[in-house]
Design a protein that fits this description.
The structure is a homodimer of 286-residue chains. Chain A is an alpha/beta fold and 286 residues long. In chain A, 42% of the residues lie in helices and 17% in strands. Chain A has two domains: 89 residues, Leucine Dehydrogenase, chain A, domain 1 (Rossmann fold, 3-Layer(aba) Sandwich), CATH 3.40.50; 127 residues, NAD(P)-binding Rossmann-like Domain (Rossmann fold, 3-Layer(aba) Sandwich), CATH 3.40.50. In chain A, strands 5-4-6-7-10 form a five-stranded parallel β-sheet, sandwiched between helices. Chain A has a three-stranded parallel β-sheet with strand order 2-1-3, sandwiched between helices. Chain A has a two-stranded antiparallel sheet with strand order 8-9.
Chain lengths: 286, 286
C-alpha cells in the first residue's frame, strides 16, 4: 500500500491486538460492553454486528438489546437503566441514529447513560469535560479514532492549521475540541461557510465529516495536506453500489501527504476506539 | 461618539433598563444573586462591588460572602451548598480567579453550583449544553455580552469569517461555540498558532481574549472588520496607569467598521449579562 495512505484497517488491527494482549492479562472479570439497537435499519445492524465481532476478538463480553422501531422513549430509557445497574457492563453504546420518532430526543436519551459507562463519550456532561479539558473525559470514538490515526502517522498537530468540515455533536464539534487541545489552530466549517475554497487551500490538516459524496475537490487542497475523511457515502458507479468519502479521493491522493481511504480509514478506528474506551471504563470500575 | 464605536456602556445601560422594567413588574419575590469572593485581590473586590451596585440598580437582591485567601476548598464548597439550598438565591457567582492555592481546583469547585443556579454558565454540564446546543444552556456572561454587542450592532454573523484569540474555558471556548451556533465560520487561535497575521487578515469578526496589551496590531486587520476586544490590561503611559485592550485601538479604529473600546466595551456587558442570566434563572425557579 502507498506510504501516503493512512491504513485505518491496519492501525485498528494493531490497536485491537494491543487491547487483546492487555485484556488477556486481566485477572478479574472480562470487560463488558452493552449495545442497544433500535429499529431495523440494515446499516445499523451491520455496524452493531461488527462491533460484537470485534468485542469477541479482543476478549470483551458484549450484551445486546434490540428494540422495535416504534418502542417508546421510556422503554429505551429503562433498558439504559438496566445496563447502568449491571456490574458486568462497563460501557453502554446506544447505536445512532435513532428512528425518526425518537431522533429529536437522542441527546435526552443518551444523557441517561451513567457518566462512568458513557463509552461513546456523547453525554452532555462528557462533552462539557472535553471543553474544560478534564482528564476524566471519554473521547468520543470517531474523533478519538481520527486523533489516533494522526498520532500513529506521526503527524504533530501543534501549530498546524486544521479545518474541520461539519459541526455535528457526534464528530465535528468533539474533533474540533480535540485538535484544539493538541494545539492545532482549528477552523470549524459548515454549510453556511462562504469561503471554503480559500480555507481549504490553507489547511495542513483536513477533517471531513459532512456525509456528502466527494464534496471536497482535489483542486481546493493544499499540496502536502493531511486528509482524514470521516464520510461514508454510498453511491452508484456503473450501476454498482460503491462507498466513497467526503473527499474526491483519487485526485486528492496526488496532492496530499497523507490520506485515509474510504472504506478502510476512519471506519475501523471507530470500532477500535470503542473497544479502547470500554477497557478504559473497565479500569475505573475494577 | 463615533458610529464605529460599539458603546458597551450605553448598550449595557439599555439592557439594565430593560431588566429594571421587567423586574419592577414581577409580583413575587425579587430575583436574588449570591456572589462569593475569596481573598483580597483589589480588582476582584472592585468587580464584585460593581456587580452589587448593578443588582441594586435593576432590583435584584444580592448576597455576598467573602472568604479569606487561605480558606479551604471545603469551606468554599460549604458556602456554595448554602446558597444552593437558599430559595431566595437564583444565581450563584464565584468570582474568578481564585487565589493560587485554590486555582487548580476552580472547575471542581464551580461544579458544585447547581445547574439551575449556574448564573455564570461555567459548570461542566452547562458547557456541555453549549456544545450540544441545548436551549436549556446558560450562556456565560462575557461570551453572551460579546454576542449581544454584535446583535445590537446589527452584525449578522452567518457565513462570516470569525477568529477568536484565546481558548480559555471562561471566554475563548464558549464564545467560539456561540459564534458557531450563530453560523459564523470560527477559527480558534491561541499561543501555538503560527500564521496569525494571515488569519487575522481574513477575519470579518475578531474576538480578542488573550490578556496581552495591544497585542493585535492594526496592520494585520482587514479593512471593515468588526472587533470585539475582551482584554483589559493595565499598562503605564507616561507614569500613569491606563487600561488598554488586546488590540492596538487607535490605529485599528481607522480600519475597523465597528470596534469596542477598552474600557467601556465588553466590560459593562459582562455585568449586564450577569443580571440578565439571574433573571433567566429566576424565571425557572418561580
Amino acid at each position: 500500500m502507498s506510504e501516503k495512505i493512512i491504513d485505518g484497517k491496519a492501525i485498528a488491527a494493531e490497536i485491537k491486538n494491543e487491547l487483546k494482549n492487555k485484556i488477556s492479562n486481566l485477572n478479574k472479570r472480562a470487560p463488558g460492553l452493552a449495545v442497544i439497537l433500535v429499529g431495523d435499519d440494515p446499516a445499523s445492524h451491520y455496524y452493531v454486528s461488527n462491533k460484537e465481532k470485534s468485542c469477541a476478538e479482543v476478549g470483551i463480553v458484549s450484551f445486546k438489546t434490540i428494540l422495535a422501531a416504534n418502542c417508546s422513549k421510556e422503554e429505551l430509557i429503562s433498558i439504559i437503566n438496566k445496563y447502568n445497574q449491571d456490574p458486568n457492563v462497563d460501557g453502554i453504546l446506544l447505536q445512532l441514529p435513532l428512528p425518526a420518532a425518537l431522533k429529536n430526543s437522542s441527546q435526552e436519551i443518551i444523557d441517561h447513560i451513567l457518566a462512568n459507562k458513557d463509552v461513546d463519550g456523547l453525554t452532555t456532561i462528557n462533552l462539557g469535560k472535553l471543553v474544560v479539558g478534564s482528564k476524566d473525559a471519554i473521547e468520543p470514538c470517531t474523533p478519538r479514532g481520527c486523533m489516533e490515526l494522526l498520532k500513529r502517522s506521526n503527524v504533530n498537530c501543534s501549530g498546524k492549521q486544521a479545518i474541520v468540515l461539519g459541526r455535528s455533536t457526534l464528530v465535528g464539534k468533539p474533533i474540533s475540541l480535540l485538535l484544539n487541545a493538541a494545539n492545532a489552530t482549528v477552523t470549524m466549517a459548515h454549510s453556511k461557510t462562504q469561503n471554503l475554497e480559500a480555507l481549504l487551500a490553507q489547511a495542513d490538516i483536513i477533517v471531513a465529516a459532512i456525509g456528502q459524496a466527494e464534496f471536497i475537490k482535489a483542486n481546493a487542497i493544499k499540496v502536502g495536506a493531511v486528509i482524514i475523511d470521516v464520510g461514508i457515502n454510498a453511491i452508484e458507479i456503473d450501476g454498482k453500489r460503491t462507498l466513497v468519502g467526503d473527499v474526491e479521493f483519487t485526485k486528492a491522493f496526488e496532492k496530499a501527504s497523507l490520506i485515509t481511504p474510504v472504506p478502510g480509514g476512519v471506519g475501523p478506528m471507530t470500532v477500535a476506539m470503542l473497544l479502547a474506551n470500554t477497557l478504559e471504563l473497565y479500569e475505573k470500575h475494577i
